[in-house]
Amino acid sequence: MTKRVFTLPDDRPTRLVVLISGVGTNLQALYTATTNAAYGAEIVGVVSDRDTAEGLRWAQSRGIPTATVCLGDFPDRESWDVAFTAAVQSWEPDLIVSAGFLKILGPKFLAQWPSRVVNTHNSLLPSFVGIHGPRDALRAGVKLAGATLFIVDPGMDTGPILAQVAVPVHGDDDLETLTERIKVAERAQLVASVGRMVQHGWWIDEVRAGFESD
């Protein structure tokens, strides 16, 4: 298998763009990390597919530039993909973090930043793809749930896995309690993993991915 290695600039902070659809708790965790210069990154823009996303207002209150590109404003996904790509490109990102973003990214977008778009997902992939990971974990009766960070490819939650964190499912868990524990673990994993990508780089082969610091 051919191993490809990716690194980010070491003479300036890495330029991050974060994609959101909701409150933006992962965005907030990343922002807190970037306030420490040693983390080596800065959030240069936040983009949402929903103008009602609370995370946009939060970002604006911190002086972070934002943009909204709603799918419903375009005649088809292809034209939305073009506009969404242009909005993100305006900030010239080095790395893009999809953090609670609920749309499948288009081919033009992924071709613009191959293997430089990561997504955090609230299940232990490949189990429970889609937006209902904690619910599906409870329905399946599994003993371990968790979160996955992966390199985005054209499929739904199918890209090479960079990191995973397991969260035990307790006998008295309901959807609210399990979801909240997964969120806590997911945020910590996201911050740590993006930091490793920024500081050390990452690698990908046909089916796997990892950090150069491993």
Automatic annotation (TrEMBL):
It holds the Pfam family Formyl_trans_N. It comes from the Bacteria. One of its GO terms (cellular component) is cytosol. Pathway: Purine metabolism; IMP biosynthesis via de novo pathway; N(2)-formyl-N(1)-(5-phospho-D-ribosyl)glycinamide from N(1)-(5-phospho-D-ribosyl)glycinamide (10-formyl THF route): step 1/1. GO terms for biological process: 'de novo' IMP biosynthetic process. The active site is at H121. Belongs to the GART family. Catalyzes the transfer of a formyl group from 10-formyltetrahydrofolate to 5-phospho-ribosyl-glycinamide (GAR), producing 5-phospho-ribosyl-N-formylglycinamide (FGAR) and tetrahydrofolate. This is Phosphoribosylglycinamide formyltransferase. It comes from Mobiluncus curtisii (strain ATCC 43063 / DSM 2711 / V125). The lineage of its organism: Bacteria, Bacillati, Actinomycetota, Actinomycetes, Actinomycetales. The gene is purN.
